[in-house]
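Form 7-S
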Amino acid sequence: MIDFKLDPKSGVPFYRQIIDQIRYGVASGDLKVGEQLPTVRALAVQLKVNLNTVGKAYRELEIQSILETQQGTGTFIGSTNIQIPKSERQNKLDSICSEYLSIASSYGFSAEEMVDELKKRQRGKT
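Output:
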């Protein structure tokens, strides 16, 4: 199961953030075929968003055959294989890096300090 997180400052609608997190979770293998997702109501409560927001995300993913809803039992990851295009992955990385750089530089950190910290964290030394 993935830990859903929404960023109200990103400018990306919440339903789109939910869709992206599920798609990336499936593409990375963090979400497996047949794995059950939280109900619309449970996820809406967890994320503190309107039921319609989660419902819209789930419906769009069902149309793409990424999710399958079984009446009375829940919503599950479908068997569709997802490959995230290189350009989409690069755009996402660019966005993450821009936001990270903006926040860190506003606190006076240099790019070298940020790179060093990322490398330490990757090695497991926080």
